[in-house]
Design goal:
The chain has one helix and eleven strands, in the order βββββββαββββ. It is mostly beta strands.
Length: 140
């Protein structure tokens, strides 16, 4: 096994939440300064509604508040937003979406559709290939 513990940092994007409507779950803005890779991880728990869909969107920009945010072009994604999206039958699964663009700031949003029951979900960002190692533990 190789060590990636000392070269990654993990950032909370969406705290574990029970979502019972169609309100977009807008993640925290992730600053990738000091890292050379970024992967978003999404985890689901129970998804109770029998016809709900959950659409993933990744945006990027140069402004720290993402006032210049635009949807990330497919050429800058590892995987696709469609593969990271999920439906009611995807209970207790994990999904990933990688970013290889050149913008410093990114934001993940998960938008439910047809959701009227509790849906448990969360997301984190894994920043990798730290330019300064080892990285802090617990993550900063």
């Amino acid at each position: 096994m190789k060590d990636n513990f000392n070269e990654i940092n993990v950032k909370r994007v969406l705290s574990p939440a029970s979502v019972a409507d169609n309100t977009a779950q807008v993640g925290e803005i992730v600053d990738s300064k000091g890292f050379n890779s970024l992967t978003y991880l999404i985890a689901t728990g129970s998804l109770a509604d029998a016809d709900a869909t959950f659409t993933v969107l990744l945006e990027d920009g140069d402004a720290a508040n993402l006032s210049d945010a635009v949807a990330v072009a497919d050429a800058y994604l590892l995987g696709t937003e469609a593969l990271a999206s999920f439906i009611f039958s995807d209970d207790n699964k994990c999904f990933k979406l990688g970013y290889i663009g050149n913008k410093r700031y990114t934001r993940l949003t998960i938008t439910p559709g047809g959701n009227a029951s509790a849906a448990l979900l969360s997301a984190v960002a894994v920043l990798g290939e730290a330019q300064i190692q080892p990285t802090a533990n617990p993550p900063a």
